[in-house]
């Protein structure tokens, strides 16, 4: 815990420090403790855990703007700019970060993963914004107030999860909230990442268009994800919380052991 009784949050994201979701989360966490922003100066979506050797830092009204990636922000923040942070919170991302295949792509999630290797509890938080695989979703969630469902869930967990012992088992939480046109979510569900993968690639002359059809499935509700998965929870209007660990799982197999023994 920081020197005061109130917790100190290092807040980062991948949409950029001036994004509305970031401001919404900054304001909510400020009611719980001190918040130091260490976030990308511009949009760094879907960069995964890309890391730089040297980044430019400039002071910002909320903390620090970094000319780098979310992983850069987590390292620079925890090692230099905010080394006494009690928790790292990443978000609020415009667009859901759900499914096992997204975990390695998302800059938002990657910042939380990076924090986990420092032994600092972390929460990644995102808001599902409907619109399918096209650009319709870009017109939504342009105001901090649009992020209330995600921000309320993140603030609740940031305020209660550590004392409840959640981080004794999980390295970080991946939180995804449903879109709301007025009514709030119908609850919070502990989930596991969905294994649905529906990427397509179609050649168009000198280009190949890569499309994630999962978003179209979510828009229509036509998803095969079983109960207990993150995507199912969000589509049905619940906040999804996946308790995750940072190292990749290692599983020994007799077949591989045999190959290694015979080498």
UniProtKB/TrEMBL annotation:
<dbReference type="InterPro" id="IPR036523">
    <property type="entry name" value="SurE-like_sf"/>
</dbReference>
<feature type="binding site">
    <location>
        <position position="15"/>
    </location>
    <ligand>
        <name>a divalent metal cation</name>
    </ligand>
</feature>
<dbReference type="InterPro" id="IPR030048">
    <property type="entry name" value="SurE"/>
</dbReference>
<keyword id="KW-0963">Cytoplasm</keyword>
<dbReference type="GO" id="GO:0008253">
    <property type="term" value="F:5'-nucleotidase activity"/>
</dbReference>
<protein>
    <recommendedName>
        <fullName>5'-nucleotidase SurE</fullName>
        <ecNumber>3.1.3.5</ecNumber>
    </recommendedName>
</protein>
<dbReference type="GO" id="GO:0005737">
    <property type="term" value="C:cytoplasm"/>
</dbReference>
<dbReference type="Pfam" id="PF01975">
    <property type="entry name" value="SurE"/>
</dbReference>
<comment type="function">
    <text>Nucleotidase that shows phosphatase activity on nucleoside 5'-monophosphates.</text>
</comment>
<feature type="binding site">
    <location>
        <position position="93"/>
    </location>
    <ligand>
        <name>a divalent metal cation</name>
    </ligand>
</feature>
<feature type="domain" description="Survival protein SurE-like phosphatase/nucleotidase">
    <location>
        <begin position="10"/>
        <end position="194"/>
    </location>
</feature>
<keyword id="KW-0378">Hydrolase</keyword>
<feature type="binding site">
    <location>
        <position position="45"/>
    </location>
    <ligand>
        <name>a divalent metal cation</name>
    </ligand>
</feature>
<dbReference type="InterPro" id="IPR002828">
    <property type="entry name" value="SurE-like_Pase/nucleotidase"/>
</dbReference>
<dbReference type="GO" id="GO:0046872">
    <property type="term" value="F:metal ion binding"/>
</dbReference>
<dbReference type="GO" id="GO:0000166">
    <property type="term" value="F:nucleotide binding"/>
</dbReference>
<comment type="similarity">
    <text>Belongs to the SurE nucleotidase family.</text>
</comment>
<keyword id="KW-0547">Nucleotide-binding</keyword>
<feature type="binding site">
    <location>
        <position position="14"/>
    </location>
    <ligand>
        <name>a divalent metal cation</name>
    </ligand>
</feature>
<keyword id="KW-0479">Metal-binding</keyword>
């Amino acid at each position: 815990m920081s020197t005061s009784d109130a917790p100190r949050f290092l807040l980062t994201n991948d949409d950029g420090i001036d994004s509305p979701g970031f401001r919404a989360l900054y304001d909510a966490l400020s009611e719980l403790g001190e918040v130091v922003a260490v976030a990308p100066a511009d949009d760094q979506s879907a960069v995964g855990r890309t890391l730089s050797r040297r980044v430019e830092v400039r002071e910002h009204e909320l903390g620090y703007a970094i000319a780098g990636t979310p992983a850069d922000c987590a390292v620079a923040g925890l090692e230099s700019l905010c080394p006494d942070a009690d928790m790292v919170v990443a978000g609020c991302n415009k667009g859901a970060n759900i499914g096992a295949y997204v975990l390695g792509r998302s800059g938002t999630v990657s910042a939380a993963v990076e924090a986990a290797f420092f032994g600092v509890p972390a929460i990644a938080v995102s808001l599902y914004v409907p619109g399918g695989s096209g650009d319709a979703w870009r017109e939504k969630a342009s105001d901090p107030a649009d992020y209330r469902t995600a921000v309320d869930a993140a603030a609740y967990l940031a305020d209660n999860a550590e004392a409840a012992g959640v981080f004794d088992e999980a390295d970080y939480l991946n939180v995804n909230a449903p879109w709301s046109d007025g009514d709030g979510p119908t609850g919070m569900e502990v989930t596991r990442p969905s294994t649905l993968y529906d990427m397509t690639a179609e050649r168009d002359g000198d280009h190949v268009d890569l499309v994630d059809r999962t978003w179209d499935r979510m828009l229509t509700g036509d998803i095969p994800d079983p109960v207990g998965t993150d995507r199912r929870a969000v589509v049905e209007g619940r906040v999804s919380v996946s308790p995750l660990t940072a190292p990749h799982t290692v599983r020994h197999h007799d077949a591989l052991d045999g190959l290694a023994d015979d080498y």
